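User: Sequence in, structure out. Go.
Assistant: Echoing your sequence, followed by the structure tokens.
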Amino acid sequence: MSDTYLTIKYAQEPLNIDRLAYLLVELDQIHHQASPERFPLHSLERRKADIVKLFAQDHLFYAEDRSQIIGFASVVKRKDALVIEHLYVEPEFRHQKVATKIVEKIFEKIPDKEIFASVYAFNSPAIKFYDQLFELSSLVFKRSKQKIVN
């Protein structure tokens, strides 16, 4: 991939729903491998419906290389905050600043809002990535079924 061919876009209308849903299913698989009980696998049809909802209710950004979508991010409204909920780049395009450029486009398009990033504790590459672009705001702890204190 060359920067010459990379474009980052803000999706204002439903487009290439099949491709975006496919990438979301790939992200599902990563989460499922880390924690199968918490992250079930979803069908492509279910993820197509989810992508349509994102277009209707939230913000969707995507990266293209030679007209092929290679990554995306969704920014969703949670109460009074905006949260980057999904951020995914295909493995062969990682470590080439694609995700950074997607997040920079988010900041550019939504400059006057506070934006948070949500990351699961098992996703250390994402934690390292977001640590470079965001300041740590809070940590959320969940009681483990195995860690019951007497």
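User: And one key feature?
Assistant: The beta strands are 6-11, 59-65, 68-78, 81-89, 115-117.
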